[in-house]
Write a structure and sequence with these properties.
3-stranded parallel beta sheet
Length: about 270
């Protein structure tokens, strides 16, 4: 008999050749202090943690608190990101700095922004940075818009994961274009990870029910009234959404049908 518990236990996310039990990835910005950051990361169960190199000290400033003291690289996969970069040149420079600071670490999250208000990606600059970084030996998880054509192009270039936005960064609006995300998922050969726009647990569960391989978030947890409790909620939501996707939901109907045919009743 097929053992569902065993199937779920063995259901891991593979990124750049490494398996992860958790499909939730979280950021490290906007918390009130490093202790709250540590507590939220632990409560989330995340194994991959993203760090904004231009905004976070991971060794650049020896006299300042170091994030790696509370999020140690021997326990978590540190995912340097290029948040705050608005052109390919700055993004490439930031990734190279991260590789130097992290002793040759080559897995990065690339984001090149095109608008300071919405923080929407600049696809042209993203493609340019992607090409340069791939030639330089980086493994790229790339933030992009929810356009299926762009997602496919980034995969074809060699990105190890494609990360379409659900809504603008930090908006908490949830998944605005579920059919776009679904189309991206259906045509992907690499992990698809929703990045940006998640506001609460139901948003995370929806992303997973659409078939996404994971969810990355920061503001949804850090800006909650109780970030540590929200981190715990997100952990459960991602797991529940994944299980629901694997189980397969019932068909949608306009109205219910009787559980048992009427002609089989005895009175």
């Amino acid at each position: 008999m097929h053992n569902i518990a065993e199937s779920i236990h063995g259901d891991t996310l593979m990124v750049a050749g490494r398996n992860y039990r958790s499909r939730l990835m979280i950021g490290t910005g906007k918390y009130k202090d490093l202790e709250q950051t540590r507590a939220a990361v632990e409560a989330s169960g995340a194994e991959m943690v993203t760090v904004a190199i231009r905004r976070t000290n991971i060794g650049q400033s020896p006299d300042e608190p170091n994030l790696l003291d509370v999020i140690p690289p021997d326990r978590y996969t540190i995912l340097p990101n290029t948040a705050g970069c608005f052109n390919a040149k700055d993004a490439v420079r930031t990734c190279r700095l991260a590789r130097e600071l992290l002793n040759g670490h080559d897995l990065v999250k690339l984001e090149v922004l095109g608008d300071e208000k919405t923080l929407y990606p600049d696809v042209t600059e993203t493609l340019k940075a992607t090409e340069t970084l791939l030639k330089d030996g980086f493994k790229i998880m790339v933030y992009t818009n929810d356009d299926p054509v762009t997602a496919r192009r980034l995969e074809e270039m060699g990105c190890v994961a494609v990360m379409p936005l659900a809504a603008p960064i930090g908006s908490g609006l949830g998944i605005r274009n579920p059919y776009n995300i679904l189309t991206i998922v259906e045509n992907a050969g690499v992990p698809i990870i929703v990045d940006a726009g998640v506001g609460t647990a139901s948003d995370a569960a929806m992303a997973m029910e659409l078939g996404c391989d994971g969810v990355l978030m920061n503001t949804a947890i850090a800006a909650a009234r109780d970030p540590v409790l929200m981190a715990s909620a997100m952990k459960k939501a991602v797991a529940a959404g994944r299980e629901a996707f694997l189980a397969g939901r019932m068909p949608r109907k306009r109205y219910a049908s009787a559980s048992s045919p009427i002609d089989e009743t005895f009175f």
